[in-house]
Amino acid sequence: MNSSSVCRELKEIGAVHVKSFLSGSSLDNIEREYDKIFPFIPDLHEANLSNKSFLNISKAPSYKAGKHLRVEPSAYSSFPSLMSAFLTDSMRDLVNTYLGVPNQFCMQIFMSNEFAVLEEKDWSRNHYLHFDPYSSLKFMLYLTDVDEEGGATHYVPGSRETGKYYREEKMDLHDLTGLQGGCKHMLEDYSDPVAYTKEDSVPIIVQRGDLLILDTDTLHYGGLLKSPSNRKVILLHNRPY
After folding, report:
1. Which neighbouring-strand residues pair with 238?
2. Cβ(101)–Cβ(214) below 8 Å
3. What's CA 96's distance to the chain center, in Å?
4. pLDDT score for 1
């Protein structure tokens, strides 16, 4: 994977699909690490792993699409195979090239398992077309095949500058009057004419072991199942300082 060409494509269209990023035993080991912890998270709940021995589970169902885990850096040692795949010179070089130095390399990890088909009234914020509240270069490793029926990530090619403009010039992180008590990180949150809608997005159809690299200023959404499935994804965030 050539850092310069990946960064050029990211700036032009906002996302890069790396096919067969991982395979064989390295991918199997990562999935085993994932499968080792997810049975301890009740369906429709979110959890936080702050160290090897403390899994903090939300007290009430809060993720109707399935279950969700945030991994703190202090618990990265629970996922040695995952970390050996991403804490590499080549991945660090990619992040350095795109975000500049210094940066927050692999600063947080999220893992999700979506399996429920939802009505729109039950959608989460990530199911709507949005830009992320914080500038980030996101690595998305797929542990299952994902097609349009199974919650494919969608993005709007060429929308990165629009998302960046709204994040930097319009969004207020302290204004939590957006959807579900969050900040306003959807174009529809503002009075401007909407430049893009879901109709402008394209799906990224992936196979197990593929990697999606996404500039999170690019308008995107994902995890919205149209039929029962078992979508398993690991997301690693890198941020500029």
Report:
1. 137
2. no
3. 19
4. 78
Question: What's the CA gap between 223 and 4, in Å, rounded?
Answer: 29
Q: What does the alpha-carbon distance between residue 215 and residue 223 come to, in Å, rounded to a whole number?
A: 17
Over residues 145-167, mean pLDDT: 97
Per the DSSP assignment, residues forming a β-bridge with 108 are 237
> Is the pTM for the entire model greater than 0.90?
yes
Quickly count: other Cβ atoms within 10 Å of residue 113's Cβ: 22
Alpha-carbon distance 221 to 217, whole Å? 12
Cα 128 from Cα 145, distance rounded (Å):
22
Domains of the chain: 3-240 (2.60.120.620)
Percent of the chain's residues with pLDDT above 70: 100
Asked whether 108 and 70 are in contact (CB, 8 A), the reply is: yes
**Residue ranges in 87-139 assigned as alpha helix (H):** 89-99
What gap in Å lies between CA 54 and CA 4, rounded to an integer?
Answer: 40
Q: Look up residue 165 and give its two tokens.
A: 């403009």
Mean pLDDT confidence for 15-35: 98
| Bond before 102 cis per omega within 30 degrees | yes
